[in-house]
Prior knowledge:
Layout: H1 14-27, H2 37-48, E1 50-55, H3 65-74, E2 84-85, E3 95-103, E4 107-117, H4 120-124
Parallel strand pairs: 1-4
Antiparallel strand pairs: 2-3, 3-4
Amino acid sequence: MKLLPLQQAVYVSPENIAQFEKERLESGEIERKRLTPWARKTAKSLKEAVLELQMNPKQDWVVEKRHIRIAYRLQGIAMSEAAITLPEDPISKPGEYEVKIMVNDLETVSVKINVQVISPEETTQT
């Protein structure tokens, strides 16, 4: 209890913890988490590309996180549904929309998706 009156310690509070972490970062005592080069490259490619989502016109549908996850998986990009943030308004019509993807729990990337209505017959004709 002698440390507090001598101002050699402070009470634990969210503000004091935040100030302590800020001072540790500024002094170089701890290194700020950064995206790896591969994660930066992935984030950049996600920003630049437009994800094509094909929905069935014969059924009522609303775009869900699983649709986006599966579409990316088909392109070779793995992610959890927790990394995907959909807009507040449900996506239930064709068009271009924006969703957010969290890369390595460090950076959020805005991604454009283009929702198209294509019948199953059209997808098998190539």
